[in-house]
């Protein structure tokens, strides 16, 4: 409330001072004219305007005072901003609780060029604005301009000028009473340090959830939470990557398999425009999740002005990408892409099912998306009545794409994706409920084997979620993500039991076999992307497994394990109040 009052004064104060000054000048002129009947109105105005401020009396004196205040307005604005920031610091330190703390930006102690990642300040600012209507938010940035500060204050966000050592920063943001802390500085090592301090017993907040940003892709792949944090602290921590979140949510909201999910012969074809961190993360997501009923690898056409270099970056981070994707690379300046190239992509022997336009420039995204939309006109076929979706990434701080989505003549073929416009998705994307359910069911099944099979010692992964290595947590997340893909493959979907109309679907043996093959391929790809290779006997330390072969090469016992896994997934979801229904639109 205090800061909003300051914003009101800052916004309307100058106009008010000018209005009062003009009013005082008019009253002083009237006063001078009444005091000397020989003066004309113009002479009275000139007399007041040229009067000496030290000798002026009456309304002329008030006018001179208001002129001085108007001239001093710049200093007043600086003072009010300082007062507001001091109030935010006091309020965050002592008054708020159960709030969300966001720490972002590049620390001044980091040498220039030490971090190759894009500045996260715009994302942090937009995220704070999106969360603020529902929760108290404290945002810590190294620096912030007046316009940004005003937007934040109007939304009720408390702003901390972050030039503090880590311990003092946590105290200043009220981390000891916060519900969540999102560490998203540009340098991942600083996020690790901040997370360490936040979950330390010295902070005395065991309820605090900490979201720790780890980028770039190569670092994220090798990151092991157990190598940085002690076991008691790990349940409070969730590691995330902005591009990884975007890729997961894109695949969920705009699935590339939707037009061909139930086909035994047609494959997925994805166009990715922009092979930066987001484009590379989409590639990895497709390799992990692109295991469909047809058995065909996803075909991916990637377009970038430095496509060779960007592809090498992705392949160095994930050498197994080529095993699971059919990638065609086109090097082109985005500004030079024309309709001929667009039509070439869209008339490929495997029709495009979705196009993700994900450069960091919203104007480039707008232009390419418009060309793609124009190219998809008339693309429909009798066996595929829906044209390919065109999805554009909306960078933080952008507005052009949002306007086109709302008012452009795209006839519903254009879809906008923004990580922060639905901030709830940013936070709930890190909700591991379904993944934990699958893991806990796995542990119960393994415990049963220990009880019933003499000599069986139990699986290495049979441990509480809170101490499960991050790689195994991710494996469960991928299992959970792929369940929707499986359901589309058999014309089904999962819904809450109280929303299910008609009879619940019972999977046939044939459907279970289809899903078992898909699950095995997904598991195989996930393991190979994590560095596992084929070999016998199994060796967890060396990442060797004998089952990294096609489904038909498995023993019957191992095939049955995949069938059991699928049935267990259905059982777990049923226990949580979810049911499978036939999709009448399929």
Give a written overview of the molecule.
By secondary structure, the protein is an alpha/beta fold. It folds into four domains: 2-71, no CATH class; 95-213, NAD(P)-binding Rossmann-like Domain (Rossmann fold, 3-Layer(aba) Sandwich); 245-427, NAD(P)-binding Rossmann-like Domain (Rossmann fold, 3-Layer(aba) Sandwich); 432-582, Globin-like. The chain has 21 helices and 16 strands. The chain has helices spanning 2-35, 41-49, 58-71, 73-94, 121-131, 146-155, 166-172, 188-198, 217-222, 242-253, 277-289, 307-317, 321-324, 339-346, 362-376, 400-407, 423-428, 433-452, 470-489, 509-529, 556-575; strands at 100-105, 137-141, 158-161, 180-185, 209-213, 237-240, 269-273, 299-304, 326-331, 354-357, 389-393, 414-417, 492-496, 533-534, 544-545, 578-582. A six-stranded parallel beta sheet has the order 3-2-1-4-5-6. Strands 9-8-7-10-11-12 form a six-stranded parallel beta sheet, with helices on both faces. Strand 1, helix 5 and strand 2 form a beta-alpha-beta unit. Helix 10 (242-253) crosses helix 11 (277-289). The two termini are 52 Å apart. 39% of the residues are buried. Mean pLDDT is 85; it is low at 110-116.
């Amino acid at each position: 409330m205090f800061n909003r009052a300051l914003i009101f004064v800052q916004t309307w104060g100058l106009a008010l001072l000018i209005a009062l000054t003009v009013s005082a000048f008019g009253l002083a002129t009237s006063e001078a004219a009444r005091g000397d009947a020989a003066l004309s109105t113009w002479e009275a105005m000139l007399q007041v305007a040229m009067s000496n401020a030290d000798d002026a009396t009456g309304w002329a004196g008030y006018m001179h005072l208001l002129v001085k205040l108007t001239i001093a307005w710049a200093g007043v604005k600086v003072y009010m901003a300082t007062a507001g920031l001091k109030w935010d610091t006091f309020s965050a330190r002592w008054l708020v609780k159960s709030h969300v703390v966001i720490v972002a930006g590049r620390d001044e102690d980091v040498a220039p060029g030490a971090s190759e990642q894009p500045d996260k300040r715009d994302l942090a600012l937009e995220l704070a604005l999106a969360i603020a209507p529902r929760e108290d938010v404290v945002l810590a940035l190294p620096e912030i301009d007046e316009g940004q500060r005003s937007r934040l204050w109007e939304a009720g966000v408390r702003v901390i000028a972050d030039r503090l050592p880590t311990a003092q920063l946590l105290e200043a943001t009220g981390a000891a009473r916060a519900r969540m802390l999102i560490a998203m500085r540009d340098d991942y090592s600083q996020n690790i340090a901040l997370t360490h301090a936040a979950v330390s017993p010295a902070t005395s907040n065991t309820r605090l959830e900490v979201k720790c940003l780890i980028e770039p892709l190569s670092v994220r792949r090798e990151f092991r939470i157990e190598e940085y944090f002690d076991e008691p602290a790990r349940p409070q921590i969730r590691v995330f990557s902005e591009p990884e979140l975007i890729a997961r949510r894109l695949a969920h909201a705009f699935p590339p398999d939707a037009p061909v999910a139930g086909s035994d012969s047609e494959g997925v074809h994805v166009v990715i425009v922009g092979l930066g961190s987001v484009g590379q993360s989409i590639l990895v997501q497709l390799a992990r999740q692109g295991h469909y009923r047809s058995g065909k690898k996803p075909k991916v056409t990637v377009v970038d002005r430095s496509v060779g270099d960007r592809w090498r970056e992705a392949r160095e981070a994930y050498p197994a990408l080529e095993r699971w994707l059919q990638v065609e690379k086109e090097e082109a300046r985005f500004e030079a892409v024309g309709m001929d190239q667009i039509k070439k992509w869209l008339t490929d022997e495997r029709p495009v099912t979705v196009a993700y336009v994900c450069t960091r420039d919203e104007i480039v995204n707008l232009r390419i998306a418009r060309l793609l939309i124009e190219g998809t006109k008339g693309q429909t076929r009798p066996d595929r009545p829906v044209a390919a979706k065109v999805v554009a990434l909306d960078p933080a701080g952008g507005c052009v794409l949002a306007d086109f989505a709302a008012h452009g003549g795209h006839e519903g073929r254009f879809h906008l994706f923004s990580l922060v416009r639905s901030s709830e998705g940013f936070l709930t994307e890190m909700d591991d409920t379904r993944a934990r359910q699958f893991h806990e069911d796995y542990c119960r099944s393994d415990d049963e084997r220990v009880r019933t099979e003499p000599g069986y010692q139990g699986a290495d992964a049979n441990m509480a979620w809170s101490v499960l290595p991050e790689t195994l947590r991710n494996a469960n997340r991928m299992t959970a993500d792929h369940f929707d893909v499986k359901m589309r493959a058999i014309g089904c979907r999962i819904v809450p039991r109280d929303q299910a109309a008609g009879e619940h679907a019972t999977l046939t043996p044939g459907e279970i076999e289809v899903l078992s093959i898909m699950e095995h391929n997904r598991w195989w790809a996930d393991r190979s992307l994590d560095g596992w290779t084929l070999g016998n006997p199994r060796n967890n330390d060396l990442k060797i497994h004998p089952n990294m072969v096609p489904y038909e090469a498995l023993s019957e016992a191992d095939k049955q394990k995949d069938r059991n896994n699928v049935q267990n997934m259905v059982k777990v979801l049923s226990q949580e109040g979810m049911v499978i229904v036939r999709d009448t639109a399929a």
